[in-house]
Write a structure and sequence with these properties.
Keywords: Signal. The chain is an alpha+beta fold. The protein has two helices and three strands.
């Protein structure tokens, strides 16, 4: 019984090391970093992204989305 628990523990440890070293579970989440344009942004998401790229550069900006009830252009890094 002890040998089975030992081999399972070693297998789990090796799996965790493999996942950590290859970054298999690395998140692709984007984080809000800037705001662009007027408070009521009347353009599309593409216009928002162009505003973000022009003002802050790409990278760090990877997307721009018009969000919220007041239609703000949010830049994500």
């Amino acid at each position: 019984m002890a040998k089975n628990i030992n081999s399972v523990s070693i297998t789990v440890l090796l799996f965790v090391l493999l996942v950590a070293s290859t970054e298999i579970l690395k998140s692709e989440a984007q984080t809000f970093c800037f705001e662009c344009g007027p408070v009521t942004f009347v353009g599309t998401n593409a216009d928002c992204f162009n505003c973000c790229k022009t003002k802050y550069g790409s990278p760090p900006v990877v997307s721009g989305i018009v969000e919220g009830s007041e239609k703000h252009c949010h830049c994500y890094c």
